[in-house]
Amino acid sequence: MKTSDRVIFNTIVLYGKLIVVLIIGLISTRLVLSALGETDYGIYSLVAGVVGMLAFLQSTLSSASMRFLAYNLGKNDEHYLKRTFNTTLFLHLFLGVILVIIMEVGGYFMFEYFLNIPLDRISAAKVLFHFMVLSTFVTVVLVPYDAVMNSHEDLFMLSVFDLIGNFIHLGAAIYLTIANTRLLITYGFFMFISQLVQRGIKMFYSNKKYKECVLNFKYIDKLQIRSILSFSSWRLVGSVASVIASQVRGVIINVFFGVKLNAANGIALQVSNQINNLSTSLTRAIRPQIIKSEGQSDRERMLRITSLATKYSVLLFSLFAIPIFFEMEFLLNLWLKEAPDYTLIFSRLIIIGLFVSKLTFEIGTAISAVGRIKEVTLVESAIMVSAVVLSYYFYTLNFPPYTIYAVSIIFGFFTFVANLYYGKKIAGLNILEYLKSSLLPLVYPISISLAFVTFIYYSLDMGFLRLSLNTIGAVILFLISFRLFSINQWEIQKFNSLIQVIKMKIRTFIK
Q: Where are the transmembrane segments (predicted)?
């Protein structure tokens, strides 16, 4: 399959998966919240945050494995790919064991000295924590198989396997509605089983499908261990800062405001994650091409793809985020009947923060493809940690709960500037050309859509009519204005050729 065909196919696959995951997520969250109640759901969100805070190595190693495997695929060296795969698998196994020790020891101190959990729920919370530690271990050890499938852009099968895990989540949520004892522990057990089944299937499939997935530690490359660990060490710094910026928020909110605010925070994060997925599905299909282009020493193509990925990531995010932002209160009431306090403002502020991060997020992918991530990681980490420290200080002065998200938005603009600067310094990004080709074309569609939605929002009462008008009107106006003002002739030609390819595939399938 040609590169352009593969990208469009993977994009369609990811959006199909996204729709299914969105439906499952909406149903599951409502069922789980109803079954557990605000307190236990808040405990679940808090414990998940603690595990995520202590399991930052997972994302670090995953991105490092993906980068090295995709980069070497660009070089088309099968023997070296085997060495890369076994080296990453060995590192994941070793660090997975270390991670379990760190999490269990860290979890003990968290429960004893930091977390604000009702005494009668401490025991259940600890059992839930142990299940999540096991889930994290399975995930960390088997992450190289995800990296292999991503590097080969085999996103169809990856999506199928991920959906299996989501359907297990749905089954767990349904079971909670008919069970009557140990609901929190039961849900934790199902989350562990979900990861075990999902990751096991990926491992079996990859071993059968890909030549480099030959489990033999004689392929372990000591020099490559150093390269991966050097890359990962700086990724680790960035991951620690990211964890502090995201997961520690939940802990700080818990310390100052209790578990019920953790329920609001957990729901807000789910809402924002679903909206974010609408834009990342396209860029996830494109991202391996950015890294492979650098592996092929084609810097110009790599930067061109980076600009396109940014443009369409922001476009897709804004397309859905604008109407959802304004109609959030009605959607939360429709979804949960009665959302926990502060869910609305948390959700809206997270959406704004995500929008700011989208403006330069793909530049980070370009810098990772080059491999020189030390300076930008240190600067971005300092920005993220500073935002959390300042928020903690504000809480000591009795600032409201949403302060931590407001501060993160302001500091997000510092990250915006840093990404532009290091994109130019490390990857040779032309800043003016990047702004002109990626962000400036989106000013008209975003402005027109915002103006329309704002007018409808203040003209009509909350309800299905306003929701329908805002959603349909904003999407139509956004797409029309994008077609008129934001897309260049080269992109039009590419879209037309891709449409022809899709038509031909549909005709072939029907025949």
A: 7-29, 41-57, 89-111, 123-143, 155-178, 184-201, 308-326, 346-370, 377-396, 402-422, 434-458, 464-485
Residue 505, domain member (yes or no): no
Query: Each residue of 361-404: pLDDT tens digit?
Result: 888 888 888 878 888 888 888 898 898 889 999 999 989 988 98
List alpha helices for 216-258, DSSP H.
222-257
Confidence of residue 35 (pLDDT cuts 50, 70, 90): confident
Assigned domain for 361 exists: no
Read off the pLDDT band of 176 (50, 70, 90): confident
In the chain, the number of structural domains is 1
Other CB atoms within 10 Å distance of the CB of residue 419:
24
**311's tokens:** 């443009």
**Full domain range(s) for residue 19:** 1-220
Provide CB contacts within 8 A for 430, sequence distance 6+: 303, 424
**Is residue 162 one of the residues assigned to a domain?**
yes
For helices 374-396 and 403-427, the axis angle rounded to 10 degrees is: 170
Is the Cβ–Cβ distance between 372 and 429 less than 8 Å?
Answer: no
Examine residue 246 and state whether it is found in any structural domain, yes or no. Answer: no
> What's the N-to-C CA distance of the chain in angstroms?
20
DSSP letter string over 408-476?
HHHHHHHHHHHHHHHHHHHH---HHHHIIIIIGGGHHHHHHHHHHHHHHHHHS-SSHHHHHHHHHHHHH
Interval 345-351 mean pLDDT:
90
